[in-house]
Amino acid sequence: MTPAEKRLGFLGLLYKSHKALIGEEIRFNLPKIRLLILPKGETSRNIDNLLSKAKSSNIEIIQETYSKIDLGRSLGHEEVALVAITDKKAALAYLNKTKGEQA
């Protein structure tokens, strides 16, 4: 299993345990968000607007290497354009997984 597949599996577990949000849930829970994860090449006006709000709220944003289709499959949907982690420890664990891969 590749590191990216492990991170996708981890996101799937977080989503099932209600520690990760997708879709409109993100907009309504912006103060609770600790980390935003964006798949490669994903842009739209709605996402850009949400990302600018996240930056002004000092929420960390990660651009990932997998597609929104891969991200959606790991969460039980067709496509997912943005995932937000709300749990502080889970966000740190995800960041450690991404940094461990780059080291």
Molecular structure report:
This protein is an alpha+beta fold and 103 residues long. It has a single domain (3-102), classed as Ribosomal protein L30/S12 (60s Ribosomal Protein L30, Chain: A, 2-Layer Sandwich), CATH 3.30.1330.30. The chain is 52% helix and 14% strand. The chain has helices at 3-16, 24-28, 45-56, 68-75, 88-102, and strands at 20-22, 35-38, 60-63, 83-85. Helix 1 (3-16) crosses helix 4 (68-75) and helix 1 (3-16) packs antiparallel against helix 5. The longest helix has 15 residues, at 88-102. The model has no long low-confidence stretch (mean pLDDT 91).
Properties at a glance:
single chain; 103 residues; alpha+beta; 60s Ribosomal Protein L30, Chain: A; 4-stranded mixed β-sheet
